Amino acid sequence: MDEVVIVEYDPNWVYLFEQEAAHIRAILDGDLITRIEHFGSTAVPGLAAKPIIDLLVGVRSLAEAKQVAVSQLEPLGYAYWSDNPDPQRMFFVKGLSPNNPRTHHIHMVEPDSILWERLLFRDYLRRHSDEAAHYAHLKYNFAQRFSRDREAYTISKAEYIESVMQKARQQPAS
Q: Which of 14, 77, 148, 156 could form a disulfide with 142 if both were Cys (CB 3.0 to 4.6 A apart)?
């Protein structure tokens, strides 16, 4: 399993997202995609993160996406996680081989997916740099503690993320 490594924010992450979103739009049927968002820590200016660009790709139908997306995204270097236990999401990873680190994740969902709510977390951290700094501190600590256990690293952040989501849900949208 690949190591959990947290690095300082890289302003190039915005460009890498835009570039990858353009590639995805060019490869997949334009009628299939409803929207593409940059989310996760690399989408928050100034926030330390695993250097992996997370793309939230909305599709009008996961059933239709399963028919075309896997074969169309493979030439871009994406591997599809066919054993994903979440039937409401297709998950793709770019850079899975031992010699190439992960660079991008695609989370493909329908417009009514609960995963869209994660944009509240992103937007809250964008508006509250003190909260983003606290989150970075936690991430560094958890990455050190769980450097070889990606699942434990993710689980360790869940309670904090939910607490921020509660705050974000209570704030009016801006």
A: 156
pLDDT in tens, 92-143: 999 876 667 899 999 999 999 999 999 999 999 999 999 999 999 999 999 9
φ/ψ (deg, to 5) at 153: -60, -45
- Judging by beta carbons within 10 Å of its beta carbon (0-12, 13-18, 19+), is residue 47 exposed, middle or buried? buried
Query: Which residue type sits at 132?
Result: A
CA dist 8 and 23 (Å) reads: 26
What distance in Å separates the CA atoms of residue 156 and residue 143, rounded to the nearest whole number?
10
The full set of domains in the chain, from first to last, is 12-170 (3.30.460.10)
The full DSSP string for 142-174 is: HHHHTTT-HHHHHHHHHHHHHHHHHHHHHSPP-
Question: What letters, b where the CB count within 10 A reaches 16 and e where it falls short, cover 72-103?
Answer: ebeeeebbbeeeeeeeebbbbbbbeeeeeebe
* CA gap 77, 91 in Å, rounded: 13
Nearest residue to 118 via CA among 151, 159, 152, 161:
161
